[in-house]
Specification:
Blueprint (H helix, E strand, L loop, with lengths): L1 H14 L4 E3 H8 L9 H11 L8 H5 E4 L3 E4 L17 H14 L1
Antiparallel strand pairs: 1-3, 2-3
C-alpha cells in the first residue's frame, strides 16, 4: 500500500496538483500485491501504530496529509493540499460525539 501511495504522490507532485484517493481505489491498486483490504479503521490503526516509530520510519505520516471515511489526501507540493500538522481531521459526527460526551461528563 505504501508503494502505491508513494507512486500516486509522485504523480501528483509531477502534475502539481492535490491527490485524494478513495479506499476503493487504494484497494483496487493493491489487490494484485496480495495486500489485505484497507478501510478507515484499519488505516487508522496503522497510522496510530506508526506514531511509535522514529520519524524517518513513519512512511504513512510522510505520505498522507489527512484521511477520513472516504479515503486519503496525499501530501503534495501543491499548496492547496497542505493541512495543519497533527492528528487527521475528525468527522463532524466524531466532533459532535466528543462535545456531547464532554458536556455530559463536565
Amino acid at each position: 500500500m505504501v508503494n502505491a501511495l508513494q507512486s500516486l504522490k509522485s504523480d501528483a507532485d509531477f502534475d502539481n496538483h492535490t491527490s485524494q484517493i478513495t479506499w476503493r481505489a487504494i484497494n483496487s491498486l493493491t489487490k494484485d500485491d496480495g495486500a489485505p483490504a484497507i478501510d478507515y479503521t484499519r488505516f487508522a490503526a496503522l497510522w496510530d501504530a506508526e506514531e511509535k516509530l522514529p520519524p524517518q520510519e513513519q512512511d504513512l505520516h510522510n505520505i498522507v496529509a489527512s484521511f477520513d471515511g472516504q479515503g486519503v489526501t496525499l501530501k503534495t507540493h501543491d499548496k492547496d493540499s497542505e493541512v495543519p500538522k497533527g492528528k487527521p481531521k475528525t468527522s463532524g459526527i466524531q466532533s459532535m460525539a466528543k462535545r456531547a460526551a464532554a458536556k455530559e461528563l463536565g
